[in-house]
Design a protein that fits this description.
Number of helices of chain B: 6
Order of helices and strands of chain B: EHEHEHEHEHH
Distance between the termini of chain B: 25 Å
Largest sheet of chain B: 5 strands, parallel
Structural class of chain B: alpha/beta
Radius of gyration of chain B: 14 Å
Largest sheet of chain A: 7 strands, antiparallel
Strand content of chain A: 25-35%
Helix content of chain A: 40-55%
Oligomer: heterodimer
Radius of gyration of chain A: 64 Å
Distance between the termini of chain A: 162 Å
Structural class of chain A: alpha+beta
Strand content of chain B: 15-25%
Number of strands of chain A: 25
Helix content of chain B: 40-55%
Strand order of the largest sheet of chain B: 2-1-3-4-5
Strand order of the largest sheet of chain A: 3-2-1-7-6-5-4
Number of strands of chain B: 5
């Protein structure tokens, strides 16, 4: 075309400069030279646009630069030098505009002769510039379109989301790489499938079968409306399990048509998210079940003192808080006994000062029946993402019975302490492993004449004089096993006096270990008395025996003789003999009486009774 | 009466074990009066009595011992203890004859299987007749 213009106008050179706006340079992109004229295109690359602008400013009319004689540009030394180098004598430069912006120049050079270009010639140049401008514009548009196409194609092929195009009947006509990967199909397998294909085994978000006509793409085709963010599951033939995708479908229309000719569906794999959501739902349900069924109280409160949550266990005992909460009456404090309000406030303040820290507190609360329950709580302050306190979470248990039991135990301990310390009988507690004294009561101290401090450093064999150490260890073992409960022992006191004692033992548990409780009875005098009585008894028994055997023997003899004499007797002997007989009988009765009385004196040492 | 060893021709004996000679005499007279068909033997203490029994004791012997308690060398209790180890013990029955009215002595005597009665001195013929006529004694004696 440049050649045609050049021939028509009889010029030596016709050329186009295109501007590189970014670098403020212009480049000779096209050139026609008449025969014999040296091409300059190679020399005219990266020419500063400023040269042109300079001329435009000084020498243009309506942006057209017409220089019949370059000598008129001598003052512009640089430009003149360029022109001379190209042997130009005259030239015309007409701007090429694209949307009102100069994007290039079309120019004519006359090299052989100086000439003045006519208005028509310049007009022709203008037409040429418009043609070029339009061509450039179209080219630019085409390039833009091509770029867009290329960009689209790149995006289409590389985007992580799957994209599938379906025609008006729902058949898949195009898909991107991501779609193939996500669906586990090749292009060959995918193209031609439609939403009604049973091989999708499609299910909805609840896992129920999803018919093909309810797929987002088909709905978009049917309704002509976009469908957004539909969760569905489809069978992945490679993973051999269902995957979850989030699908949006956009219908496409041709101009003037109300029915879509095509729909494209975009989708992304949310399988992991779905699994996480399902697991989260399961965990939440599990947690909820745990919280609702556990025997502990679980509550939450806001920072103004109202309940925001309570579990069933709490409601079973303190259902009245529902009314308090609904009346906005600082329900939390109102459901705690007055004397524990300050404690509650201090605990909450401690939690607020250190969110996340668990603080334990015991609080008395009236229950639905008006009974006071002692409850043991763990308070913790919860925060938002920025660490700001949002709620109090409290987990608690009813410790009323435990506290009562503790109190009873303490009272029992106090009672035992009294029984031990105030008892008139000497008592002590022994360690059966060491034989050492663990505790003694004042009566024990008095009896043995040692102080408690002294006794705490002593052992049972320091006092016991009737048995060896080994025997004592054996006793202690037998006491622990319950085989011995009482012992007769001899103990020496601080004065060196040996006392006979009757000790009774019990094995008790204290602080998780077995110890021995001993009660001491001083039986020294009693034993002495028994020994005396035994001696007396012996003496009496001896007397009875003597009387029975020795005293009576002659008497029996006498009586036997008398029996014999009776048979031999004359009348007078009878009277004498009867007297002898009566005396003998009388003596016999006396002796028998004495014997009987001696037999009545019995002493049973084992029963400790005097009959 | 000869207290020396008798010829073992007889098998029915009454032993008078008594250290007091007067009671020996009295008891002999009693038994003679009863006219039982027995051999009457006397010992002055428990040991003598055992020695005599050893000599005359046979499997078909039957002996009634009238036993005093308070004797020297070997008293009545010692005699009874030693009798328990003799082969002829089943052939001997004992009536304790004592001056003692102490029930302890009576109780001690009853502990011995061979003792069939406890008689307090002076014994009478009737006391012996009661023993003699006791069916269980008759059964033993025959």
């Amino acid at each position: 075309m440049l050649g045609q213009v050049g021939n028509v106008l009889h010029v030596d050179r016709v050329y186009i400069f295109q501007f590189d706006q970014e670098h403020v340079l212009m480049n000779n992109t096209f050139e026609w030279c008449a025969d014999g004229i040296t091409a300059q295109k190679e020399n005219l690359q990266n020419v500063p646009i400023e040269l042109y602008r300079g001329m435009l400013h000084q020498n243009s009319v309506a942006d057209i630069i017409h220089i019949p004689d370059i000598n008129s540009l001598k003052r512009n030394v640089e430009m003149f030098g360029h022109l001379q180098a190209q042997q130009i004598q005259s030239f015309v430069l007409v701007p090429i505009k694209l949307e009102d912006q100069i994007v290039g120049i079309v120019g004519l050079d006359s090299v052989r002769v100086k000439r003045i270009f006519t208005f028509k010639e310049i007009e022709l140049m203008q037409v040429l510039s418009e043609i070029i401008g339009n061509t450039l514009q179209r080219k630019s548009h085409i390039e833009k379109i091509q770029d867009q196409d290329r960009d689209f194609k790149n995006l289409f092929d590389t985007m992580a989301q799957g994209v599938v195009y379906q025609d008006a009947n729902g058949q898949i006509i195009q898909a991107n790489t991501a779609a193939l990967r996500l669906l586990g199909l090749t292009m060959q397998q995918l193209l031609g499938k439609d939403s009604m294909d049973s091989e999708w085994h499609a299910v909805n978000s609840e896992g129920q079968p999803l018919p093909g006509d309810q797929h987002p793409a088909m709905i978009a085709l049917k309704t002509g409306q976009p469908v957004y963010n539909v969760e569905m599951g489809i069978y992945h033939p490679i993973q051999k399990q269902h995957i979850w995708i989030l699908v949006s479908a956009m219908p496409e229309f041709r101009n003037g048509e109300s029915k879509p000719f095509r729909v494209f569906a975009t989708f992304q794999d949310i399988t992991q998210n779905k699994k996480d959501a399902i697991q989260l739902a399961i965990n939440e349900q599990r947690l909820r079940s745990i919280i609702e069924t556990q025997t502990s109280y679980v509550i939450r409160t806001n920072l103004t003192g109202s309940y925001t949550y309570w579990n069933k266990t709490f409601e079973d005992d303190f259902s009245y808080v529902k009314k308090l909460n609904s009346e906005n009456k600082e329900a939390v404090l109102a459901s705690i006994c007055d004397y524990h309000h300050q404690r509650t406030i201090e605990t909450v303040q401690e939690c607020l000062a250190q969110p996340g820290k668990v603080v334990q507190v015991e609080l008395d609360k009236p229950d639905d029946d008006g009974n006071i329950r002692t409850t043991l709580w763990e308070f913790v302050c919860l925060t938002d993402d920025r660490g700001n306190p949002t709620e109090m979470q409290c987990v608690g248990i009813d410790v009323t019975e435990q506290r009562k039991a503790t109190k009873r135990l303490e009272e029992s301990e106090a009672r035992f302490k009294d029984i031990f310390n105030k008892n008139m009988s000497p008592m002590c507690l022994l360690d059966p492993q060491t034989g050492g004294y663990i505790d003694v009561n004042p009566a024990f101290e008095n009896f043995y004449g040692y102080t408690k401090e002294q006794l705490m450093n002593m052992f049972i064999w320091d006092i016991n004089v009737s048995n060896s150490k080994d025997e004592i260890y054996g006793f202690l073992k037998s006491i622990i096993s319950g085989n011995i409960q009482t012992l007769d022992l001899k103990h020496k006191n601080a004065k060196g006096e040996v006392k006979e004692i009757y000790a009774s033992f019990a094995s008790i548990v204290s602080e998780g270990r077995q110890i021995v409780h001993e009660i001491v009875i001083d039986v020294t005098e009693r034993n002495q008395y028994f020994r005396t009585v035994e001696l007396q008894n012996k003496a009496l028994q001896d007397i009875a025996w003597t009387q029975s055997h020795i005293v009576r023997a002659p008497l029996a003899r006498l009586m036997g003789i008398v029996d014999q004499l009776k048979e031999l007797n004359p009348e007078e002997l009878k009277d004498w003999l009867s007297l002898v007989e009566s005396s003998a009988h009388e003596l016999d009765l006396i002796i028998q009486k004495i014997t009987s009385r001696a037999q009545e004196i019995k002493f049973n040492k084992q029963s400790d009774q005097l009959n | 009466m000869d207290t020396n060893i008798m010829q073992p021709a007889a098998t029915r004996f009454i032993f008078l074990v008594e250290d007091d000679p007067i009671f020996q005499l009295l008891h002999q007279k009693l038994i003679q009066k009863l006219a039982w068909n027995v051999e009457l033997l006397a010992a002055r203490n428990g040991q003598e009595a055992l020695d005599l029994l050893d000599k005359v004791g046979t499997s078909d012997m039957r002996a009634l011992v009238l036993l005093d308690i308070n004797m020297p060398i070997c008293d009545g209790w010692q005699f009874l203890n030693q009798l328990n180890s003799k082969f002829y013990k089943e052939s001997v029955q004992v009536a304790v004859v004592s001056s003692s009215t102490d029930h302890v002595d009576r109780q001690n005597a009853s502990k011995y299987k061979n003792v069939i009665d406890y008689l307090v001195k002076p014994i009478k013929a009737a006391d012996l007749e009661i023993i003699w006529n006791e069916p269980s004694f008759q059964e033993f004696w025959k």
